[in-house]
Amino acid sequence: MPMTDAVIKIIAEMTARNPEDITPDHSIAELAHDSIQLFELFLRLEKEAGGSLTYEEVAHIETVKDVVSFLEARQVTLSL
Amino acid sequence: MVFRTSLYHDGVSGSEHFHRVKSIFGEHELKLLLSRYYENSSTKVCQIMKDDAGKPSGLVLENGQAIIHAVSLSHCYPYIYAVAAKDARSIGCDIERARSYTQTFCNAFLSSHEYHYASRNPRGFAYGVTLAWALKESILKALGVGIRLHPRKVDVHMILENEGLGSYMITIDEKPVECRVEKILYLEGYIATVVSLE
Known about the structure:
Largest interface: A-B, 14 and 21 residues
Helix content of chain B: 25-40%
Structural class of chain B: alpha+beta
Distance between the termini of chain A: 9 Å
Helix content of chain A: 55-70%
Oligomer: heterodimer
């Protein structure tokens, strides 16, 4: 699965949204319904990245496409 | 510390609409709070500014003099909770919905001490965990970093143990910090907190 689709799939699952409604330009913080959900999303991305990212690295990412760029730059494979 | 809070309940919008307009509504609430400090003043302009990390502050121009106020804002559908302090000390607020939590989530942000005291909350486990989260996020907002810093790095077990307003010596990233719990508000299914930092 392409990285963008994989990231959108995770975010859609965590925020109970339709994947088709999520675009690469969406802000991660805006997609989460509240900060607890945002934290759970950060934890999930951290976990999916298999420990190659720290929480603080993930939590500084702003948009969906930033997540994709960050993971690709680190050559991370999501374990979906 | 002199501060004012506002709790706005949006009983009209659905959650999706709420998420689109919450920032506008929140800024409006903060401006209203600030303007109430200057009700007898002839000229005032209130603006909400944000620093590079997104931490808001309130600017009031009164007779050409700029006055900075500490402000904080939190949203949790259908509520918007706003706080504005009389001075520029660091302040943070949070409002959260109490819900059922997984053990994984609790373990991710609570220490064993915090978990112990959250479990003993007289309103129940969900309220105890929600209170812990709201306190940590309020403190992180007062610091100006929000949850970009891992909430587990903020130790609030002493506040949870006493569950009262007042001053506490807590640790943030293992460094001692004096924190004051200004307000804990229990609503049906929600908790709101306000804290300030020395």
